[in-house]
Amino acid sequence: MHQSERAAFLNQKGGVGKTTSVVNVGAGLTILGKKVLLIDLDPQGHLTSFLGIEPYEIKRTIFDVLRGDVHPREAIITKPLNARLCIDGQESRLSISVIPATIDFAEAELSLSNRADRKFMLKNAIAKISDDYDYILFDCSPSLGLLSTNALIAADKVFIPIQTEYLALKSLEDLIGKIESVMTELNPDLVIGG
Questions:
Q1: Are 61 and 101 in contact (CB under 8 A)?
Q2: Within 10 Å of residue 121's Cβ, how many Cβ atoms?
Q3: CA–CA separation, 58 vs 75, rounded Å?
Q4: Other CB atoms within 10 A of residue 20 CB
Q5: Sheet holding 157-159: strands in order across?
Q6: Tens digit of pLDDT for each residue in 170-184?
């Protein structure tokens, strides 16, 4: 048994490539033969739609998991990648697992904020499946609220996609302050990975 490596992709600024980074890193790790789970923590559900998951395919979401309504395995959807792996002349299709989000997730911050375990909901939930995957990647929303804090507490590393422009660089100081606060108070094992 092993425990997966967990990484959050976070920036409070939108449009900096968080979702694109999660998808590409996840696909690259899958091509390398790793078992990868992507978790959509953005109420806009961009990761979910980016992977071509249709609303009719979604039975359970990360919101259901965080509320404790379902085991994380019940929310996982496996999607094929547009990639094939050829080993010893045998070709196989690759797929990636995702726990989706829908617009219902927009109420998560408010409805989950009264729970005693509110900062550890994600960490506790993924502990149930951590041995099933080599990597678990969190696509965070463009905010520093409860969901992003959950991702930082559940992660081993945080990656900060950023564009080299004034407003993006200006907000980086606040983001690093938030990350350092989580490192000091809630997750001393967290490191900034890039």
A1: yes
A2: 22
A3: 8
A4: 15
A5: 77-87, 90-99, 36-41, 135-140, 5-9, 157-159, 191-192
A6: 778 888 988 999 999
